[in-house]
Every structure is written in C-alpha cells, then in structure tokens.
Design a protein that fits this description.
It is a single chain. The protein has about 240 residues and is α/β, with parallel strands linked by helices. The chain has a single domain, classed as Rossmann fold, CATH 3.40.50. Helix content is about 25%, strand content about 25%. It is built from six helices and twelve strands. The strands form three sheets. Strands 2-1-3-4-12-11-10 form a seven-stranded mixed sheet. It has a three-stranded mixed sheet with strand order 5-6-9. The chain is globular, with a radius of gyration of 17 Å. The two termini are about 25 Å apart. Bound molecules: glutamine. Glutamine binds next to helix 5. It catalyses: L-glutamine + H2O = L-glutamate + NH4(+). Its EC number is 3.5.1.2. Keywords: Glutamine amidotransferase, Hydrolase, Lyase.
C-alpha cells in the first residue's frame, strides 16, 4: 500500500483528498498496488507517508502553524533527506521553494527542496483570480489544455541553481513543466510566459489549483510518478 498524505494545517485539504480518491481509478499500476490517503498534522502521521501534497491556502499561516507543531524540520527531512515525493500547489509551491519574494513586507519560513525563487501573489489579489488554458506536455501529446485556476498565485521567478554542488543542494535539475501566457498581459514572445509548474527530482510544484477543478489528470500523472518511483526505488528525473 502506498500512503499519500495531505498536509492538513490550513487550506484546500479536502479538495485534494477528493480528487486523489477519484484519480486512483485512472492510475496505471499493477493490481497489487493500492493507495491510501491521510490528513497529516503530526510528525508521526508524516512518517507513515510515502508521498505528500501541500495544498493551496496561505503559506505564511501554514509555516507558522507548522513551526508551532514542530513539523517544519520533519517536513524538511521528508523532502530533502528522505527524498520522498512531494507536490505543492500554490501556497504549497511557496513552501517548497528555497526562496520566496513577497509583494508585501515580511518573510516566512519554508520547507525548501526546489532550487527556485518564487514571487508570491504575482497576479495581485483574490479579485484578480483567473483561469488559463495550459499545455502540459507531461499529460501526453494531443491532450486537451488544462484549465488552470490561479488564485493569488505565486510564479517561479528564477531557477537559482542547477542542482550543483553543496550539501544543501537537491539532486537533479529544475525542470520547467508548464508556462502560462497570462490572459490580457503582454508576454515576452512566442513560447514565453510565467513558469507555473516545475519539478526537481522528488519535488513537484504548481502555481495553480488542480484540486479546484474536476480534472483529475495531474493527480493521476503524479500518483503514477509516485507509484513508479516506489517500484523502482527512485523518482524519475528524466525528461517529460
Ligand atoms: N498567496 C498565497 C501565498 O502566498 C497562496 C494563495 C493560494 O494558495 N491560493 O501563500
């Protein structure tokens, strides 16, 4: 059994659990393979997990609560020492970035694991939320675009390392898996846009919220990655 946790300190926990449960029917895996899903609020619960989702919500709040519950270091260990699979959506992406730039004053603690700097609230306030069609190559050729929901979303401003040397560095390079052409905004040219989906080894992050849609494709893909990684004893870091 593969145990997938959803960090349940704050944010869109139930939405992820619902979509995860629906996604399991579509994951290509041997019959022997089964998933169970669990809310994670304590270090012992985290230790039970093979993989973890960090939902959207408010990353400053999430970090404060995680610190109070003594979860920050276990989470760092999960991601950077045990190299277990983890996926952050929106605020979860902020938590997984090594660096975050806020539009307002005030930093926060993070888990890290992705060698990127994110810009929080890139598109402004809740009122400026939008939906954009993304072509996500990892979902397969000729697939319909993914209707991605952006709510006070962060974007990856810069890849800050190529997984180079140094004890704190993550294994593998940062792969850009998705870019967004913002509706009504000037972009820098063909194929350019904001980086809204990245992966580095075991760590996956999206600026948007698949859990707020009916589209199970990214959950299915990610669960497939998790299952493969556990079967082969590693996470695939090769191209998409
Ligand atoms: N703006 C939030 C943050 O920086 C993220 C918003 C979201 O998760 N929808 O944490």
């Amino acid at each position: 059994t593969i145990t997938v946790g959803v960090l349940a300190l704050q944010g869109g926990v139930v939405e992820h659990l619902n979509l995860l449960r629906r996604a399991t029917a579509h994951v290509q895996s041997p019959d022997s393979l089964r998933f169970t899903f669990a809310e994670v609020r304590t270090a012992p619960q985290l230790a039970q997990c093979d993989a973890l989702i960090i939902p959207g919500g408010e990353s400053t709040t999430m970090a404060i609560v995680a610190r109070r519950l003594g979860l920050l270091d276990p989470l760092r260990e999960f991601v950077k020492v045990q190299h277990k699979a983890v996926w952050g959506t929106c605020a979860g992406l902020v938590m997984l970035a090594e660096e975050a730039v806020a539009t307002k004053q005030g930093g926060q603690e993070q888990i890290g694991g992705l060698d990127v700097r994110v810009l929080r609230n890139r598109y402004g306030t809740q009122m400026q939320s939008f939906v954009a069609n993304l072509d996500l190559a990892f979902l397969g050729e000729g697939e319909e675009p993914f209707r991605a929901v952006f709510i006070r979303a962060p974007v990856v401003e810069e890849v800050i390392s190529d997984g180079g040397s140094g004890s704190q560095k993550q294994a593998g390079k940062v792969e850009v898996l998705g870019v967004c052409q913002v509706p009504g905004q000037q972009t820098e040219g063909e194929g350019k846009g904001d980086i809204v989906a990245v992966r580095q080894g075991n760590v996956f992050g999206t600026s948007f919220h698949p859990e707020l849609t009916d589209d199970v494709r990214i959950h299915v893909w990610w669960l497939g990655q998790v299952a493969d990684a556990l079967r082969h004893g590693r996470l695939a870091v090769d191209g998409v």
